Amino acid sequence: MTKKSQDKTLIASDSIFQINQVDLRLLFEHSSDVHFHPLKLNNTEILLLYCAGMIEQNFLNEQIIPALDHFLQKNEVSSLKQESYLGTLHLSEVRYITSKDELITAIYTGYGLFHFKNDHSILSIKMENKPQRTPEETSMEVTIKGPRDNFIEDITVNMALIRKRLPTNSLRSEQFTVGVRSKTAVQVVYIDDVVDKEILVKVKKQIEKIEIDAIYSGFQFMQLVENKLTLFPLHDYTGRPDFVVRSLITGRIIILIDGIPYAIITPANFFLLLKSAEDLENPPLASSFGRLIRILGIFLAAFAPGFWVAITAFHPNQLPLTLLATVIQSRTGIPLSAAMEAMIMLLLFDLFREAGLRLPISIGQTLSVVGGLIIGDAAIRAGLTSPSMLVVIAASSVATFTLVNQSLIGIVSLIRFFVLLLSSFFGFLGFFVSGFAIILFLANIRAFGVPYLQLATRFNFLNAIKTILQLPATINKKRSNMFDSKDPTRRK
User: Fold this and answer.
1) Sequence-separated (6 or more) residues with CB below 8 Å from residue 231
2) Which end of the chain is more exposed for a tag (fewer CB within 10 A), N or C?
3) Spatial contact of 173 and 142, defined as CB atoms under 8 Å apart
4) What is the largest CA-CA distance in the chain?
5) Side-chain half-sphere CA neighbours of 194 within 13 A
6) Separation of alpha carbons 89 and 114, rounded Å
7) 445: closest CA among 219, 206, 210, 268?
């Protein structure tokens, strides 16, 4: 077909959706935010309709309507059905509506619709201006030295923040539409020559299988993608584009969801959940020490109360005599058992932690820790708990704040009660059985085929150290072999 014949190609009439104005108004009669405006441009009767708050009003008045008016002064309205004439409007994404579903989706996603009375066809023109905020510092993560242009609720802006940092053609983005009602845009982002293709195929297949009416949270979406019930999170999240870039470079997959102000990182293992976006902004030695503190924190948070109850209630002979005498003296007059005492204090501290999350950031953290200590001191004076128990419970609660992932904090709190319960009944036997059960459970978790406790696919000492600690950039020349990457080299 020659270029000249292409210019006069007509849009097939049978593919154009047709509806009269009465039925069109009835279709949106219960949508008060859909506005109708009759127009008459060069004796052509047009009904303009759009969704208030979703379009750029000035662009409509100053660009689109004058462009249509100018076109109709020189051409017949039927000329719009020729593809070459549509291009002369010099407007982006101009097309005829071809179905009722497309009509409904278009008006609620920032398109202006022009209904022509003569043939009942509808021309859609993109004039999107959805409500959004500018990129700013995220409240999900503490930023000291890192960038402040963090993710917002607009998927286009979020993708642009990543693209700005990785202006390479190997950065790929594939878009899906999920949700029968919400029509939520979802993007799967990866680096083509770094990502593990087998994992990528699994992720995309799971997304394509999702059948749901609406997507309203990132965790809900990932439950559908992972398609399994597990206690521990199989993905990580971040509001910082720099941490997303780092995850992409290591071979992981990023999922962006329209309306969600953070990026989802998958697959995640236990050690990824202990990493902070701020680690790369600090010297390797300081970052490595911080990660070791987090590992210590998670063990202290999960096992300290159970260990203390087991040793004081079942095996006091394992304590030094001076410490044993202090513990016995401090418990004099307390009517509760050590297990019940620990359970009540844990519930009290968790109550303060939950209250701290619901209060403004400036006072929330202070209330959850200081408030718990003040109430704990009052409980000591009232004879409801001992000072030694308060110290153990307070240390366990404070240790949870060293963790980065909020989902992991909640899970650790549940594990703490599980360990405490078994230790309260069986002493050290229950303590070690609970610890062994947790490790066994973690070892059996798989995130898209990646073991949860995996340090490296082909284990070697350097990869294990690289997974846990932060190595200097001068010696960190290879990617971790956790994923099957075509390009294992990070620095020559």
Assistant:
1) 411, 414, 441
2) C
3) no
4) 102
5) 23
6) 14
7) 268
**Tokens 């441009």 sit on residue:** 41
CA distance 468 to 454: 11
DSSP, collapsed to helix, strand or coil, labels residue 399 as: helix
Neighbours of 82 (CB within 10 A): 16
Residues sharing a CB contact under 8 Å with residue 6, sequence separation 6 or more, in sequence order? 83, 84
**Beta carbons of 125 and 64 less than 8 angstroms apart:** yes
Report the C-alpha gap between 139 and 361 in whole angstroms: 9
In contact, 262 and 255? CB cutoff 8 Å: no
Name, in order, each residue with C-beta under 8 angstroms of 205's C-beta and a sequence gap of 6 or more: none
Give the CB-side neighbour count of residue 313, counting CA atoms within 13 A.
Answer: 26
Distance CA 372, CA 390 (A): 10
Nearest to 129 by CA among 211, 58, 200: 58
Cα 174-197-449 angle, rounded to 5 deg = 110
Identify the sign of the CA torsion 73, 78, 84, 87.
positive
Angle between helix axes 387-400 and 321-330 (nearest 10 degrees) is 100
**Residue type for position 221:** F
| pLDDT digits 0-9 by tens, 217-258 | 999 999 999 888 888 999 999 999 999 999 999 899 999 999
Angstrom distance (rounded) from CA 251 to CA 128: 34
Residue 465 is which amino acid?
Answer: I
User: Helix crossing, 428-443 with 406-426: angle to 10°?
Assistant: 140
Enumerate the domain spans of the chain.
Answer: 3-126, 155-268, 282-447
Of 146, 152, 216, 204, the closest CA to residue 175 belongs to 204
CA 390/CA 375 separation, integer angstroms: 10
378, two tokens? 């009052």
Q: CA Rg, the chain, in Å?
A: 30
Q: Which two tokens stand for residue 320?
A: 């030094």
Tokens, residue 29: 């009669």
CB 79 within 8 A of CB 86: no
CA distance 451 to 447: 7
Helices (H) and strands (E) in the chain, counts: 19, 12
| Residue 357 one-letter amino acid | L
Nearest-angstrom CA–CA distance, 50 and 261: 26
pLDDT at 134: 76
Using alpha carbons, select from 316, 296, 298, 299 the residue that is nearest to residue 427.
Answer: 316
Strand, helix or coil for residue 234: coil
Q: pTM score, two decimals? A: 0.84
pLDDT, tens only, 263-316: 999 999 898 998 888 888 888 898 889 899 999 999 999 999 999 999 998 998
